[in-house]
Amino acid sequence: MSIRRKLLVALLAAVFFIGLAASGATWFAVHREANEMFDYQLRQIALSLRDQTLRSQAAFPGFDYDFIVQVWDPAGTLTYLSNQAVPLPQAGADGYATVPVRGQDWRVFTLNQADKTIQVAAPVSLRSDRATAMALRILVPILAAIPLFALLIWLIVGEGLKPLVEIAAAIRKRVPSSLDPVVAIALPEEVKPMVSELNGLLERLREALETQKRFAANAAHELRSPLTALSLQIQLIERAQSREERAAALGQLKAGAKRATRLVEQMLSMARLAPEAAHEKPAAVELEQLAAAVVTEFEPLAEAKAIELRLGRLEPARVLGQEQALHTLARNLVDNALRYTPKGGLVVVEAWSIEGGAILQVSDSGPGIPAEERDRVFDRFYRLPGSGVEGSGLGLAIVKQVADAHGAAITLGDTDAGHGLKASVRFPKHGE
């Protein structure tokens, strides 16, 4: 529903009902005041006749015949009647009374004295007509002002919503590729939070697009080498003169295809783990069970490389997160450790709870990572110089991405033995 329409309907309805209520209150107040005024006049006329002797109509010249005056003597004889056409019944008690005469109600004031009884009366319709005329004279300006109020409300609402219209027009004129922030100069306080959030969204979108562009560029660069190698290896197979040369070239082709496949798999993992692509609902994940499952999964590879892969400290450790993403994190930590651990080495996977969170830790007896390189190894496609180990440079980048998405902190350090690498991921407390 339009905000303008909603405001106009609400404000105009408020003006209408307030005007209606004020008109009703004015109508009843004017009628009450008119009745009190007419009653006061009846009483004043009666009091003004106390000391006068009225014997004929001529004795009270210039009398307003909208009122009727009757005078009775103590014997009950009517001694004066201002209007012969409307005789009123004699009232006994002092004060006001409403009596019907010939189908019409009359308001009567009676004043009893020792020598006479005075009655002054006026038709009820007279005071009603006069009161209505007075009320209309007051209400007509009020009712006439309602359309003016409506016009003012229309203009004020339009002016108040003008910043929103201007912002919408500015956004409408933009080209799809424009992610510059919306100018927030001279905006109402109520609109500034919306513009601020919109600018924040545009900034996050710009960063996401730039990240995707960098990723695509890096991916294209990294894929060029294995694809070129595959092409060269195919040519070697074609030029092979003997079965042995062909077998050797085919082995190199298979190894190159395996490296390219792993690179593509790692890149797809990173794409799936992007915040905007993750739709899995967070749930409770038992880290100790996850660690045990990953160790079981990598046992054949560790055995083939003659590396001891085992579980160390394993205690209940529950975290809140996306199970598939956390499984990918643990897989990449273990895979990275197995890649850099030499034959006969040791890789230990552990998980336990601490106050305020939980820890997943993978330790190996490999060469480790120099302290000055430990920050850079989390960059995409970065490979440690001189390591002699083939890889895509995406394993630890994926670990960092998953850790950041779960609010976890990852640290790299030396093992207790003084050599090798110890990768620890500290997760916040479950439910935080």
CATH third-level topology of the largest domain:
Beta-Lactamase
Round the mean pLDDT to the nearest integer and report it.
78
- The low-confidence parts are 57-64
Oligomeric state of shown chains: single chain
Q: For the terminal residues, how far apart are their CA atoms? A: 38 Å
The biggest sheet amounts to: 5 strands, antiparallel
- How many strand units? 12
Give the C-alpha Rg: 50 Å
- The CATH class of the largest domain, by name, is Alpha Beta
Overall tally of structural domains: 3
Q: What is the string of SSEs from the N terminus onward?
A: HEEEEEHHHHEHEEHEEHEE
Strand content: 15-25%
Q: What strand line-up does the widest sheet have?
A: 2-1-5-4-3
Overall, the morphology is rod-shaped
Instruction: Report the helical percentage.
Output: 40-55%
Secondary structure class reads alpha+beta
At CATH level 2, the architecture of the largest domain is 2-Layer Sandwich
The number of helical runs is: 8
Question: Would you mind describing this structure in some detail?
Answer:
This protein has 8 helices and 12 strands. It has helices at about 5-50, 125-160, 160-170, 190-240, 245-270, 285-305, 325-340, 395-405; strands at about 70, 80, 95-100, 105-110, 115-125, 285, 310-315, 320, 345-355, 355-365, 410-415, 420-430. The strands form 3 sheets. A 5-stranded antiparallel β-sheet has the order 2-1-5-4-3. Strands 7-9-10-12-11 form a 5-stranded mixed β-sheet, covered by helices on one side. Strands 6-8 form a two-stranded antiparallel sheet. It has 3 domains: about 5-155, Beta-Lactamase (2-Layer Sandwich), CATH 3.30.450; about 190-270, Signal transduction histidine kinase, dimerisation/phosphotransfer (DHp) domain (Helix Hairpins, Orthogonal Bundle), CATH 1.10.287.130; about 280-430, Histidine kinase-like ATPase, C-terminal domain (Heat Shock Protein 90, 2-Layer Sandwich), CATH 3.30.565. Helix 4 packs antiparallel against helix 5 and helix 7 runs antiparallel to helix 8 (about 395-405). It has about 425 residues and is α+β, with helices and mostly antiparallel strands.
